Amino acid sequence: MPRKAREKSSTGIYHVVLRGINRQIIFEDDEDYEKFLDTLKEHKETSGYEIHGYCLMSNHMHLLIKEGEEDLGIAFRRIGARYVYWYNWKYNRRGHLFQDRYKSEAVENDEYFLTVLRYIHQKPLKAGIVKELSEYPCTEFGLSLFSEDPETAIKLFKEFNLEKKIINV
Predict the structure, then answer these.
(1) 42: nearest Cα among 86, 90, 75, 91
(2) What are the tens digits of pLDDT across the range 30-85?
């Protein structure tokens, strides 16, 4: 049976989730996290995508990403192949690392964008990776939605992440 086609976003923005096969650990140590982020940066120039938020957990990752000149499917095949090749070499293993293809949800408006951004940035806090939201990196675009002044933007972003309800933007 053929796979269901991905829903295309009119904004080009997606919430992407990529999981380790069988819930396998895909980031064993800091070097693995750094290698994946370097791989994202390296392919950003080729693909033209923009990353608005991310969270790398030990066995999966979340990205809030805007598609560039190149289709995200092509970009993720390149990113995945590069990282898996390196990971398999480092850990002397073979085979797949990621479960299926990446999952994606279209982000069609600012309200949902901020909801996803909040969700992504709260993951490390809820998982105990960080004690405060400010300890996990946030992208400039996400902060710019709150204020042009960096200090004010960080303050408002923290307040937004602590709210229980979804706000209209």
Answers:
(1) 75
(2) 999 999 999 998 998 889 999 988 899 999 999 999 999 899 999 999 999 999 99
Find where tokens 């598609």 sit: 67
CB 51 within 8 A of CB 139: yes
Looking at domain 13-162, its CATH superfamily turns out to be Transposase IS200-like (3.30.70.1290)
- Evaluate if residue 167 carries a pLDDT over 60: no
β partners of residue 15: 64, 105
Would you say residue 96 has pLDDT above 80?
yes
Beta-sheet strand order (sheet of 103-107)? 50-56, 60-66, 13-19, 103-107
* DSSP string covering 12-72: -EEEEEEEBGGG--S--SHHHHHHHHHHHHHHHHHH--EEEEEEE-SSEEEEEEE--SS-H
**Is this model's pTM higher than 0.70 or not?**
yes
Q: Is 107 helix (H, G, I), strand (E, B) or coil?
A: strand
Tell me the β-bridge partners of 13: 66, 107
Please name which of 97, 108, 138 lies closest in space to residue 121, comparing C-alpha atoms: 138
Residue pLDDT, tens place only, 1-26: 666 777 889 999 999 999 999 989 99
Q: Specify the DSSP class assigned to residue 146.
A: T
